[in-house]
Each structure stands twice: as C-alpha cells, then as structure tokens.
C-alpha cells in the first residue's frame, strides 16, 4: 500500500515539469504545466460552489485533480497532435 502511494506520488511529481502541449506548440514563453493546470481547475471547481448549487463540488474538485494524471505517462496529447480519439483511448488504456 505504501509502495503504491509512493509510486503514485512519483508519477504525479512528473506533472510539475510537463509543459502543456498546446502552449509549447504556440511558443508561449512561460508555459503552463499540467500540474498547474490541474490546480487551477480544482480552484475553479471550488469557486463554482456559490453559483452552482446543482453541482457536486467535491466530485468536480476530485475530477480536476485526477483527470490529467495519465499525461505523466503518455504525455499531453491534444487534438492538434494528429492522434485520433480512438487511438488516444487505446494509448490511455494501456
């Protein structure tokens, strides 16, 4: 269990250094990392609590914090990368 947790933390740590592909493709000087994107989305999700009573904010925050973890392994694949939705699904599943 502890080993699995440390393995997960090592994977998540990679996201601090992984620049978002779209930003790199457009030569943005200070690219956002995947980790900073996830953090911003979690904060945005939390801020919806006041105006969107119909949302499960806890679920939204959890989704924001985990939905890009796989990119630490497969990279940040955008629609501009030329990878079909089907192929991306297969890559992510592996």
UniProtKB/TrEMBL annotation:
It comes from the Eukaryota. One of its GO terms (cellular component) is cytoplasm. Keywords: Hydrolase, Metal-binding. Pfam families: HD_3. SUPFAM superfamilies: HD-domain/PDEase-like (SSF109604). GO terms for molecular function: 5'-deoxynucleotidase activity; metal ion binding. Residues 12-92 form the HD domain. This is HD domain-containing protein. It comes from Meloidogyne incognita (Southern root-knot nematode worm).
